[in-house]
Amino acid sequence: MRKILRKPINSVRSYYFRKNVEHTFQKILDTLKQENIDFFLVFGTLLGAIREKDFIKHDLDLDFGVWENIDFKLLRKILENNGFLLKSQIKLSNNKSIEYQNYIDIKTKISIDFYKFTRKKAKVLYYDFLREENISYTESIKKNGGLFVYKYEFKKFSLDDYFFKSKKCKIIKEYDEFLEKVYGSNYMTPIKYMDTYLITKEQEYIKNELGKVTYF
């Protein structure tokens, strides 16, 4: 369910994101480090850190990865005790595992996404969730009972310390391979209204599985 800003109508949200994002970013870092939660920059936040050494100008949210051993119930408790509010989550329909959660910072209204990455012997798995083509996410969920599931397989990667906006955080050490897979080989060239839908469609489609969305 990854998205990068696609419509100019979101320019107001983007303005407030840029104005307040460093406050929310620092609060997330402080909160999760204090609770010893392992997390790392992914997707648009990682792309901005590597390509622009800044948050992407037209972005709307913060993106973090967590490992498969994360307790999402504990994560919710920690974040909601520190000024964040859970807005939605996605579970796989078969094994009921939570793969994604979205929060907002109550003070700044900035959106924060947490994506689960599952380590295997020689690879790391990540599930993305897509709507049916040519209809909205809401319409797709109503029509199909959930979102379609696609599996990304990455070569097993490790994490490394990285200073971003003068703050110490974790990023994927092999970020070039990661970013190329999710954004294409030209990821270092800014594309203002980028849509990763077609890239995800190239990944392995998981039949007889749905992403079940819950809103809070």
From TrEMBL:
<dbReference type="InterPro" id="IPR007074">
    <property type="entry name" value="LicD/FKTN/FKRP_NTP_transf"/>
</dbReference>
<dbReference type="InterPro" id="IPR052613">
    <property type="entry name" value="LicD_transferase"/>
</dbReference>
<dbReference type="Pfam" id="PF04991">
    <property type="entry name" value="LicD"/>
</dbReference>
<protein>
    <recommendedName>
        <fullName>LicD/FKTN/FKRP nucleotidyltransferase domain-containing protein</fullName>
    </recommendedName>
</protein>
<feature type="domain" description="LicD/FKTN/FKRP nucleotidyltransferase">
    <location>
        <begin position="33"/>
        <end position="107"/>
    </location>
</feature>
<dbReference type="GO" id="GO:0009100">
    <property type="term" value="P:glycoprotein metabolic process"/>
</dbReference>
